[in-house]
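Researcher: Sequence of Putative heavy-metal chelation domain-containing protein follows. Predict its structure.
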Amino acid sequence: MEDIKRILELNLALYKKYNIPIANLEEFVFGFKWAMAIDNNKKISFALRIGKEKPINEYEAVIRELIGKPLDQCIIELLLKEDDTLRTLLVVLSNLMSKPLNTVKLLKDRGIERSEGLNFKYDVKDMKVGLIGYGVYIRFFLNKCSEFHAFDLLPEKQILSYHISKDSTEVYPQNIHFHLGEDALNYKEVLKDLDIIIMSGSTLVNNSYLDILSACTNAKIKGIYGPSSELSPDYLFESGFNYIFSMDAKDSKTYLDCSFAAIPNFETFEVMNLYELKKV
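Model: Prediction complete. Tokens:
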């Protein structure tokens, strides 16, 4: 958990520098896909539930002990337990603590440029591109780069389609080199030749992001995306990333109302503010 400790250290220094009061944890949600934390300012943060977890009833007592306490204290108390099954909680709380620091003004003061939306203004022609976590960036890469490699822990049956006719079988989507159902680190020979690597913030939750980054020795563009990666741009740039795409909910109540519905009736991007970050 050394990365979480470093993130806390950076955030505490910035809170002191900008004289920002630290919010208290007010609620915690284990959704069907996301873990979510809400502070007393009604800000909400996310972490994809992809890491090691214990049964929910075993988290209840732990979380109730944290409710009402400052976010930094919550993080410190969880770190002291030295329990890998608490990493999802630590990521979501680190995201929540980072939110006040991610305004245009405060980011600019730290040499970080924030632009709204998802635009990915990079020329990918003749580039070998890798996407960890299939989705989102497909439109920027498919049929636009020299090689498009997609890595995902999901099995083939949840991503690929097979068109079977009398004389042949065609596999879709086409023009993508898929590496599915396994850790991306099992393909280090592929990773080391990539010119661009973009990985899901889920790699922060399962703690594979630094190893993947180290394996991409040739990459010039090293990015991370998703609400799980809101936790500290200062730390992510320090770690070697040079592009971040993240998002935060426009309104926590609206998001929770949709999330608790019997059939969730929203697309993530519709209820989120999207933004890209680059070091300048």
